[in-house]
Amino acid sequence: MQQFLREYLQVHGYWVLFVGTFLEGEAILIFAGFLAFQGYLSIYGVILSAFAGSFLGDQFYFHMGRLKGPALLRFFTRFARKFRKGLKLIERYGSFVAFISRYTYGFRILLPIILGMTNLSARRFLVLNLLSAFSWAIIFSLAGYLFGKGAELFFDDLEKYEPFLLLVLAGLTGCMWLSHFFAHRWRRRRARARLKRMRAWQAEKENVENEDDID
């Protein structure tokens, strides 16, 4: 089984990683980092593939926003709902958003598209995207690699416990995703509650004004 996995990853591992990081990629990159520690992949090949996929992905989304942004707003209501929130982030933090966009949960693909619809120059985005993709590829690939290093301190024979360690790693990345998901839901619930209070206060104020007019 391990020999089959090694041969499969040597043939298909890097392009699968490239496609995964073109789309999203944190989880697949962490797994690739661990597999690099186990010797199935090269850590340098993992970083290079992740960098290429992440960089080219955001370049694609940026230019999609520049060419097709208004059409996307018209045809995709979910994109339109998030557009204002993403635009507020850009207005508040400026070009820094171009650097951190791939680190933001729920806006990984959306922010480059919105950035393409702003007056941010393509050259400036290119530079920021290069730096961001390179740092992102190193951080998350080394996270998986160092997970293997840490496991080596507790287990003498990692190959024997490899399926168990992959399950643990899947659980950790799943917990990371769930924490982002529930934090996002909690913030959205608070925002809705705040909006409800504001509407109730406005309605009460209007009722008082109407009563004063009657008197």
Automatic annotation (TrEMBL):
GO cellular component: plasma membrane
Domain VTT: 25-145
Pfam families associated with the record: VTT_dom (PF09335)
Domain of life: Bacteria
Parts of the chain that traverse the membrane: 12-37, 43-62, 125-148, 164-183
PANTHER family registered for this protein in UniProt: ALKALINE PHOSPHATASE LIKE PROTEIN, INNER MEMBRANE PROTEIN YOHD
The protein's name in its UniProt record: Membrane protein
Organism, scientific name: Geomonas limicola
